[in-house]
Amino acid sequence: MPFTIMTERGLRWPMRIVTAVTVMFALLGLFFVVHGAMEWNLAARSASWPTVAGTVTRSEVTSHHSTHKGQTTTSYHARIEFDYEVDGVGHHGDQRTYKVVTSSQSAANEAVATYPVGRSVTVSFDPTDPGRAVLEPGGDWTNAIPIAIGLFAIVFVSLMRWFAVSQMRKAMQRMKDLQAMGISPPTGQTSVAQSVPSPGAEEPTPTATEPTRATGPAELKPTFHDDLPGSR
Questions:
Q1: Domain presence at residue 214
Q2: How many domains does the chain have?
């Protein structure tokens, strides 16, 4: 039975594919970590930001539909916008909170009910950038969710790559062991296996010339002698 073996050259593309997938998911995880850390930092800083009065100018529930494998899911978001003024300069904001909120319809409806259009609100703004503001300053444990997801993705793909590389190295070692036993990499068959006839095959005809064996005693021919008595 032939063996499937791979050379070091044959393993280059699988290694490249594994590396590319690892880098892609690692970068995605890094994005979650960095973005989550920035949002967490803003949430912590916003707790000490100064405040001004503001007015809600838009309050509605928006939805987003996504289809995966024939199943459609809908996520909801409360769109809250407000106007405020800092040192005589008007600004417009749309950040309700830096916390990680659910995408359920009930949560979105509750937020819209809390901030109806025309309601006077207290706006916390960044003193270094008055154009950045939030209605609900501060953060909580939910700010760690994106960071945890990013770290999990990085660790997971790293472990998967380590496992794939270790399996490929074991395959390479098996290939070397099989080569030491006389297996040819191009065909994957041993020379011994090639000499063993397959079931049902006829036995090969021997090529050596066998010695001719006598089939019986040699034929005796009569001999006549003229000097024997009575021969004449």
A1: no
A2: 2
Which tens digit of pLDDT belongs to each residue from 115-166? 999 999 999 999 999 999 999 998 888 888 889 989 998 999 888 888 888 8
The alpha carbon of residue 198 and the mean position of all alpha carbons in its chain are separated, in whole angstroms, by: 42
- φ/ψ (deg, to 5) at 170: -65, -40
Tokens describing residue 175: 């290939």
Q: How many CA atoms lie within 13 A of 164 on its CB side?
A: 18
* Full DSSP string of 41-71: HHHHHHTT--EEEEEEEEEEEEEEEEEETTE
Nearest to 165 by CA among 8, 18, 5: 18
Domain span at residue 104?
49-137
CB 108, CB 76: distance < 8 Å: yes
Contact, 128 vs 115, CB < 8 A?
no
pTM confidence score: 0.58
72: left (phi over 0), alpha (psi -120 to 50) or beta: beta
